[in-house]
Design goal:
Four Helix Bundle (Hemerythrin (Met), subunit A), Rossmann fold, 452 residues, 434 Repressor (Amino-terminal Domain), 8-stranded mixed sheet, binds guanosine-5'-diphosphate, alpha/beta, single chain, binds magnesium ion
């Protein structure tokens, strides 16, 4: 998957002190392949890689982030940018009703979306009316009626004649002309004080002139505030040509991605926004009414990157990491001179980021480490902190002097048992030895990865 490829491309950068141009080129090649494999269109990939490369090469050495983290951040920023940056909300009409028209190929998920949108609008405090303008496909009108009933939202439908069920107390028009139904639907909404109208339209299996003309006629007749192009995220590269055709034939103000619950490779999402310049506004991820949400570019980017929530960890590290402190600690670690005082400082610094379980949970691969993680809890850390605080500065600075009588005093002072004090001191010595060995072998300091 795209996430896996990007993940492994970026993993190669971990542990590097500084990125050479060759490192960046190689990583960008991997990212390029990953994006192409995910069905992102070529021009979009090219533009994306060029931007990432430029920023990576010009990146300043950061005190808070190591080079791999820095590239992750750049890739993420650019992904968010390509996905539209900010979340774009519906623009409601100053004078209701707000008219929202849905357009897209058959099977894209328009009718399902009409129900979800109705449900969502209702929860937002609106009174939506769904209008059934797909008079092409047999059963399309009753499908919308079922969906509307499930959502508890009224449906305006053409006169069913005998084949389609009843339409409720709402007015009806003669069947056959989707443009007339759309127009009457909006008029009905105005008369009955519905404040949002969602127009469900017909689609075809492929792009076809008559379909475009019909959609475009409905648009002209109802002057919608928003035209949402609904596209199945699973169709990959075809999403781009379909989007272009709808942009030329009907025009739209926003995009809705559907079927994101399938094994969509993310390519459609990346391309459509970039190619059409129209924002992705909603995402649909299942057949149930609630499988629907406002589209958040930042969330989609981290989903595509698939690096746990490593990104929020990076953000927090940037905010909280004191580079100088980290550097000093790293030097001490390398020389095996870390003191309990440093240890306490580092612990406090890490804990500023939030509960320890959350912090560890954000690391990639943390899913499989659940068992190990469940043993690290904040209460335990509180006790460690209490023990160290119960020591004199001399003891913290030189833990070797902590003999049996000192241990007893510390235990009594911090309200723990002597064996807990023993454990902490033993583990500290072990960890200090191990860290010194590790940092010696890697030829670098631990912590911020700051160089120069
Ligand atoms: P329309 O022809 O554009 O109106 O598409 P429909 O709303 O009739 O949807 C076509 C099919 O896709 C139906 O079987 C829906 O249940 C299904 N569908 C729609 N949206 C989603 C989605 O987000 N996820 C999944 N898994 N199925 C969806
Ligand atoms: Mg439909």
């Amino acid at each position: 998957s795209l996430s896996d490829r990007l993940g492994s491309a970026l993993k190669d950068l971990r542990g590097k002190g500084r990125l050479s141009d060759a490192d960046i080129d190689r990583t960008c090649r991997e990212i390029r392949l990953a994006l192409l494999e995910a069905d992102v269109s070529l021009p979009v990939v090219r533009g994306f890689i060029a931007k990432v490369k430029e920023r990576a090469k010009g990146a300043e050495v950061s005190g808070a982030l190591n080079p791999a983290q820095q590239v992750v951040k750049i890739v993420n920023d650019e992904l968010v940018g390509i996905l539209g940056g900010e979340t774009r909300r519906i623009e409601y009409a100053k004078k209701p009703p707000t008219v929202i028209m849905l357009a897209g190929l058959q099977g894209a998920g328009k009718t399902t979306l009409a129900g979800k949108l109705g449900n969502w609008l209702k929860k937002q405090g609106h009174q939506p009316l769904l209008v059934a303008c797909d008079l092409q496909r047999p059963g399309a009108v009753s499908q919308l009626q079922i969906v509307g009933e499930r959502a508890g939202v009224k449906v305006f439908a053409p006169d069913p004649g005998t084949s389609i069920g009843q339409t409720g107390e709402l007015g009806t028009v003669s069947s056959g002309d989707p443009v007339a139904v759309a127009r009457d639907g909006v008029a009905e909404a105005t008369a009955q004080h519905y404040d949002v109208v969602v127009i469900d339209t017909a689609g075809r299996l492929g792009i076809d002139e008559e379909l475009m003309r019909q959609a475009s006629d409905i648009r002209e007749a109802t002057e919608p505030d928003e035209v949402l192009f609904v596209v199945d995220a699973m169709i990959g590269q075809d999403a781009v040509s379909t989007a272009e055709a709808f942009q030329d034939g009907v025009g739209f103000t926003g995009v809705v991605l559907t079927k994101l619950d399938g094994d969509a490779r993310g390519g459609a999402a990346l391309s459509v926004r970039e190619v059409t310049g129209r924002p992705i506004m909603f995402a649909s991820s299942g057949e149930k009414l609630d499988d629907f949400d406002v589209f958040h570019p930042d969330r989609m980017a981290s989903r595509i990157l698939g690096m746990g929530d490593v990104l929020s960890l990076i953000e927090q590290a940037e905010q909280h990491w004191d580079a100088q402190q980290a550097e000093a600690a790293a030097a001490k670690i390398t020389q095996g001179e870390l003191t309990l005082e440093d240890f306490l400082d580092q612990m406090l610094m890490i804990r500023k980021m939030g509960p320890i379980g959350n912090i560890l949970g954000m690391l990639p691969g943390a899913g499989q480490m659940k068992d190990a993680l469940s043993q690290v809890d904040d209460k335990q850390l509180d006790r460690v902190q209490a023990i160290i605080r119960g020591m004199t500065p001399a003891e913290r600075d030189n833990p070797k002097i902590i003999n049996a009588s000192r241990r007893l005093r510390i235990a009594n002072g911090s309200g723990v048992t002597v064996s807990e004090v023993n454990q902490l001191v033993d583990r500290f010595f072990e960890a200090r030895k191990m860290m010194a060995q590790m940092s010696g072998r890697m030829g670098m300091g631990v912590g911020g990865g700051r160089k120069n």
